[in-house]
Amino acid sequence: MESERNVLGGELAPCSMDPETGFMRDGYCYPLQRDPGRHEICAVMTAEFLEYSKAQGNDLVTPRPELNFPGLDPGDHWCVCVPRWIEAHEAGRAPPVNLDATSKDVLEDVSLETLQEYAADTESDVDATSE
């Protein structure tokens, strides 16, 4: 992960190890050519966003063990798809973003100013998601 940068220009931080997130389930939100969904935004789940996502056909609450997916709760950190986050933003339902753990590649589609409006409190680190 050393070569990956976040939207602030620093080293990409892990998003969540519990639950394990990222396209590769390694805790990081970085771009991969084989990830058409672009799981590059580290977001802090809210009940509002989880409901919105489910209404759009992407149920992030129900566990899917066959896909190594635990199901999410409000407060969990998760790598969300760039297009879904933009959609939620346009609908006024976007979740907070951990800027340290969000890939710089997101800046191709979302301005840093917009992301900063949704900046999560990064004082609580990844371990805080397991409380």
The third-level CATH topology is Phenylalanyl-tRNA Synthetase, Chain B, domain 1
Number of strands: 2
Could you state the order of secondary-structure elements as H and E? EHEHH
**Estimated radius of gyration:** 13 Å
Q: If classified by CATH, what would the architecture be?
A: 2-Layer Sandwich
Indicate how many domains the architecture comprises: 1
Report mean pLDDT, rounded to a whole number: 90
Low-pLDDT stretches: 123-131
**Number of helices, counting only DSSP H or I runs of 4 residues or more:** 3
Organism: Haloarcula japonica (strain ATCC 49778 / DSM 6131 / JCM 7785 / NBRC 101032 / NCIMB 13157 / TR-1)
Protein name: DUF2237 domain-containing protein
Pfam family, one: DUF2237
Protein architecture, described:
- With 131 residues, the chain is of the alpha+beta class.
- It has helices at residues 47-55, 82-90, 112-117, and strands at 39-44, 77-81.
- It has one domain (1-120): 2-Layer Sandwich (Phenylalanyl-tRNA Synthetase, Chain B, domain 1), CATH 3.30.56.110.
- Helices cover 18% and strands 8% of the residues.
- A two-stranded antiparallel ribbon has the order 1-2.
- The relative contact order is 0.24.
- The model is unreliable at 123-131 (pLDDT under 50).
